Amino acid sequence: MLDQKLLTILACPICKGELHYNKTDKELVCLVDALAFPVKDGVPVMLKDDAREITLEEREKYS
Ligand SMILES: [Zn+2]
């Protein structure tokens, strides 16, 4: 489980914007860049190379 405090200090490494935690997929989502960063064993991997692009449909779930 990802610490809520940790989540508040985390920002997108690309745009420095806010991230949304997806509990189901264990990903941190940046809506600006449409990227989802994986959380592996409770540790967010904030690397663009490891992030995946999210679809428009997925983005709409957060808005
Ligand atoms: Zn971003």
Automatic annotation (TrEMBL):
Q: Its GO CC terms? A: cytosol
Show the InterPro entries listed in the entry.
Trm112-like
> Which domain of life does the UniProt lineage start with?
Bacteria
Which UniProt keyword terms apply here? Kinase, Transferase
Claim: Kinase is one of the keywords in the record: yes
Q: Name one GO molecular function term.
A: kinase activity
Q: Which family does it belong to?
A: Belongs to the UPF0434 family.
Q: Which PANTHER family match?
A: PROTEIN PREY, MITOCHONDRIAL, ZGC:162634
Q: What is this protein called?
A: UPF0434 protein COA96_13375
What is the species of this protein?
A: SAR86 cluster bacterium
